[in-house]
Every structure is written in structure tokens, then in C-alpha cells.
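Side project, low priority. Logging it here so it doesn't get lost.
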Amino acid sequence: MRKGMVLAYAAACVALANSGSAQAADKLKVGVTATLEGTYTVLGEDGMRGYELAVKAHNGKAGGREIETIVGSTDASPDSALRAAKKLVEQDKVDVLISPLSGAEGIAIRDYSKTQPQITVINASSGALETTYVDPSPTFFRFNMDGAQWHAGLGDYIYNTKHYKKIATVAEDYAFTYTQVFGLALEYCQLGGQITKRFWVPLGTKDFASVIAALPDDVDAIYLGLGGADAVNFLNQYQQAGGNAKLIGGSIMVDQTVLSSKGKAKEALVGVVAASGSADTDPDPKWQAFVKAYQEAWPADKRFAAPSLLAISYYNSADAVFRALDQVNGDLSDGNKKFREALKNMVLDAPNGKITLDENRQAIGTNFVTEVVKDERGDLVSKVVKVVPNVQERLGFSKEVFDKIGLPGRDVPECKKSYP
């Protein structure tokens, strides 16, 4: 996305948040970063839609003050996230920071938050395990589950219901998708499932020919941990190559950022099983109301058919901020003490299920195992096939055992029937 377009988008967000204006000195300055450049641009744009819905739901105010939104654009890299955060905190002097979107960005922002104790940081949607589990920052809060939590229930479903006994994985080579494969493997391999080969590709890969050619034939299915333009490019090239293996989807492989894409390649996703922190067909009235609000806020050609995982994550993060500020009447004195206490004790009755925080200020929430189907309009949607409540970051393991498994990486965890 060109710089001018990014600035125009940021200005539009500010205009929306500031309708009904007050004096600048009286406003609550909220800094938000999103991937408005690069492979994950569509994810960042939908994340901002979720944020805007939260502002609207609170009538543009929090803690008795008008909300002023200042947007920082990133490209999913840690360096870009740091540049955006530093500008918002050190130059724009925002009161609260909601950041970032992507996994490796999250680790960088967590570390940055330790150098800026005067400000509270609320994760926007990033999902790397390390962000809250390893050396957590006392000023960093995450109201979305991590990538491993977002795969709770998937390993059991593909092994016991779909009877996929042997799989290969293709995923982007960075912290979030390491965490996704980590969560899948821990559950799947303990049941007896085998992961025969793991392929890792750089973010922004355009040519998947060599990976597609190397995919093994003797597997029951292939897991795809790809998102945004990478997901669409892979599907196009896989279909052109005549690929017909059963597919399993990562969380951002089967949300509306991909399912709403143009072209026939996405048809390969019909029947794909996946897992995520939200599902298009979730019957919960709170989710249905959120979908309706999302659809009514923008014309059909300016949004997806339904809100993506990024939209609900940004919405929940902003909603938590605004609710906490309301609870403390906007009091950010004494190092944000009352505000942080309100965040820590927050019970968020979110559209995608109840969210509470653990001792590391990490979300405990509900996960959804889904299957991609066509709805009555012919649109692709994720249909709920299983709900997994109360998913904690250690996935049911004791801390001693979980720590021995190691941190998510290219080869971690090993695929075995017992851990550690």
C-alpha cells in the first residue's frame, strides 16, 4: 500500500473516532498499529474495522473523554512495528497503545513496553506464544488467545473424526505459525498422529512451485499455516499444479481474509477443517449481533462477508480498554495503576465467548473447530463442528512439563506420543 493511501486510511480512522469533537487536550489519545502494508494488508484493514466498531459501540468515548485515534502502519516485521510504536508513544504521546497484529511483531512490542513503563500496551491480535509466556511484561495485556490455543481441539478432530493419521505441514517461517503448528502437534501427535515433513516459507512468498513439487504423496492431508496474499498465491498455484490432497487450515487460512478473496482457487478450501478463536456460523446471539453490526457499518464491497479473526481480536482488545477506562473514570494516574488493575480483573463477555486473563495477563477463552462450507448465498464460511471452552495457554499441561517441551520453532515440538 502506498504511503499516501496509508495516511488517508489513518485520517479516516481519526475522523470516525473524533466525530462530535472536543478540545484536543480533553481527548483520550489511543495509538493503534495494524499491518496496512505488505502480505497481511487485508488482515490489518479488517483489524481496523473491528477497532472502529468498538469505538462506535462506546459512542466515541472512554473514561468520560472523547477518543482520538492515531494509527501506525506496519508490514508485519518487528522493525516496522517498533518504528510505528515508538512514533505513537514517544512523539504522539498516546495515552494507551493497542498493538500489534502479527506474531513476531508482538514479541518486539512486548520488549519495547518494558522500556516505556508509563504506558499500558494491549495486544491487538498477535499470537506468538512467547509474547506473554516468556519473560512477560507487567504492562502488556493480551485479550486474544495465542496461536497454539487457537488450535485446541483440531488435532483430536483430524485424528479421531477425519481419520488423518499422517500429515505434512506448510507454514510461514515466523513466530505465529510456529505457535500454530506447536499447538496442533502437541494434541495430534499424542493421539498417534504423524507429521512426516514440515515446510517453512518466508512471509511474502510468491512462488510456491518448489514446495508444491516436494509435498509428499503418502500423507492423508496437508496442513496450511498461511495467511493473506500467501494463502491465495499458494491455493492458485496448488490448483494449477493439479493438487488434490485433503487440506487442514491454520486460523488465518480459513477466515474471511481468504474465504472472501476473488478467484476460483479458494474453492479448494470447501471441506477444509481448521480451528480458530471465532467461527462464521457461531450461533451465539452476541456473535450474530457483532456480525450484523459489522455488515451494516460498511457496504459489501468495502468489507468481507463476515468479520475475520483480526476484526474480532481488535474489537475485543479495544472493548477491554474502553471498559476498563470507564470503570476507573479515565484515571491513568500513578503509573496507570487503577487502569491496569481493571484490565487484569476484566471478565469480557465477548462476541466470541467469555475472556479472562491468567497470571501473565494472557487470555483464557473459547476455541472453535470448523469446516469450510458454502452458505445459502454461495459464500464460503467456517461452520462450527466443535467448541472447546476455557482454553489456557499451557493447553492442559503442567508448567513443569510444558516448559520441558520447549518453545515453538521449526522442529519444536517433536512429534511423539508423550511429552516431555
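Brief comment: Residues 32 and 322 are 14 Å apart (CA to CA).
Revisit when time allows.
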